[in-house]
Design brief:
Elements (H helix, E strand, L loop, with lengths): L1 H9 L1 E3 L1 H23 L2 H7 L19 H18 L3 H17 L7 H15 L8 H5 L7 E3 H21 L3 H5 L4 H6 L14 H23 L4 H18 L5 H9 L5 H15 L16 H20 L11 H4 L14 E11 L5 E3 L8 H7 L3 H17 L5 E11 L5 E2 L27
Antiparallel strand pairs: 1-2, 3-4, 3-5, 5-6
Length: 450
């Protein structure tokens, strides 16, 4: 069995799917970065805030002030260059590093599809997506190939499969399956939509969307793999992601996933796309159809296999880490990030910070708007690691003003998926005695769920 799998993965397959994906993925990234700049989100999320929240272990990643604009320019041009296959290896490495740095600058802006982009970019560093229909291949005949080993394509398909399947498994919870939450909350706010608005308040629709979403995520990959159902599956992909785009503000994620699912189509399908692009750009496509198969050096092949083995082992394990912690994961959010739990909760919260002089007993309350943007306040109030980091930031600020013997407590309340508001953090715990780590956060009050 093992030998059959190895033989299958080493079979040659057309390089056209990798070329099409490289082009579409790169252009999507260019558009996303331009969109981010156009809406002035660079200033809003990175330049104007007085402080930023850091990922555990990446506290050294800092916002470089106005140089952030240059970082976005570098990221954008590297995306364009790897899309057209110009200096591909350098371009994709620069894109991965610059995009990941942007993502790591502030965890307030965390989104699943940003994480997905970084992972795909990392895979593309090791995948020869530039040997077919690229500027590099056009200029260098020795690089030009029509075929590649199948496992390069399979690696990208596996990454997409992990996202879908884990997203589907995450939906198999009480709120989503038995109460259609939080979908029922969100859909009821869409009653003003033309044509379909009048049914957005119907209970049957909420359950149809919740159960249909779970089935879609769990099954769509298998229908895409099977050639007989592939066209039907892609129609469902289009409907699902375009509908979510209409109903929910989730940015570029629908277009990214639609592009990714094209990787399951045959090489001939992608060849027809490239021929169309060739005619449009007045490029001879025949020169890329030379019948040559890509072969890397033995040491490079072994290195890539080792990297992919570790990479996919981590991708399987990281989403499962949340089960190592007691309590409701949607409430504590321990193990929630990087686990493909997409749009599964509606969480509102309130956090009021009290600064106390431990010797004199004098105290005062903090006006969060003096230190955080509205978006940061919303994210901070729902997540314990944000509150801890914010408390330490406040301590540094007030100590610089001459305050001593500080203790900081938080009065926080949160509501998960429409439940009544409950105490979130233990109000008797001095946040300055805590630090962000991977240990169980026993200072988060247990969710009372009838």
């Amino acid at each position: 069995m093992q030998q059959q799998v190895i033989t299958y993965l080493n079979e040659k397959t057309m390089a056209a799917p990798l070329a099409v994906f490289r082009i579409l993925f790169g252009l999507l990234m260019v558009f996303s970065l331009i969109r981010f700049w156009y809406y002035d989100w660079i200033a809003k999320f990175y330049i104007l805030p007085k402080t930023h929240f850091h990922y555990y272990g990446f506290e050294w990643v800092q916002v470089p002030g106005n140089w952030t604009y240059l970082l976005f320019i570098i990221c954008g041009f590297s995306a364009l260059f790897f899309a057209i296959g110009f200096k591909y290896r350098i371009s994709i490495v620069v894109f991965f590093l610059s995009f990941s740095y942007i993502e790591l600058m502030d965890k307030t802006t965390y989104l699943n599809h940003y994480y997905f982009v970084s992972l795909v970019a990392f895979l593309l560093i090791w995948i020869p997506a530039h040997v077919h229909f690229s500027v590099d291949a056009h200029r260098n005949s020795t690089l030009r190939c029509e075929f590649v080993p199948r496992w390069y394509l399979t690696a990208l398909q596996a990454m997409i499969s992990i996202v879908y399947i884990y997203a589907g498994l995450a939906k198999l919870n009480k709120d989503w399956m038995l109460d259609a939450l939080p979908l029922s909350i969100w859909l009821r706010s869409k009653v003003d939509l033309p044509l379909i608005g009048q049914i957005m308040d119907e209970r049957w629709l909420h359950f149809m969307f919740s159960w249909g979403g779970a089935l879609y995520d769990l099954c769509i990959v298998f229908f895409l793999i099977w050639s007989r159902t592939r066209i039907f599956a892609f129609v469902i992909v289009l409907f699902f992601h375009l509908m979510t785009k209409i109903l929910f503000p989730i940015g570029m994620f629908p277009y990214l996933m639609i592009t990714a699912t094209l990787l399951f189509f045959s090489g001939e399908f992608h060849t027809r796309i490239l021929k169309g692009v060739s005619k449009l750009c007045s490029i001879s496509y025949k020169k890329f159809c030379n019948g040559i198969s890509f072969r890397s050096e033995k040491y490079m092949q072994n290195l890539t296999v080792s990297v992919f083995t570790v990479f996919f082992l981590l991708q399987v394990l990281i989403p499962l880490r949340g089960f190592a912690y007691p309590g409701n994961m949607f409430w504590t959010e321990q193990g929630y990030r990087f686990s493909w739990r997409v749009m599964l909760m509606e969480k509102t919260a309130y956090a009021n910070f009290k600064v106390v002089d431990s010797l004199s007993g004098k105290r005062f309350y903090v006006q969060n708007e003096d230190f955080l943007t509205a978006f940061q306040q919303k994210q901070m109030a729902t997540q314990a690691d944000f509150m801890i980091e914010y408390a330490h930031y406040l301590a540094d600020h007030f100590e610089s003003q001459g305050h001593e013997n500080l203790q900081i407590f938080v009065e926080s309340y949160a509501s998960l998926n429409g439940r009544k508001s409950q105490v979130y953090m233990d109000p008797n715990v001095d946040l300055l005695t805590l630090k962000d780590d991977w240990k169980h956060r026993s200072y988060i009050k247990a969710l009372k769920d009838d």
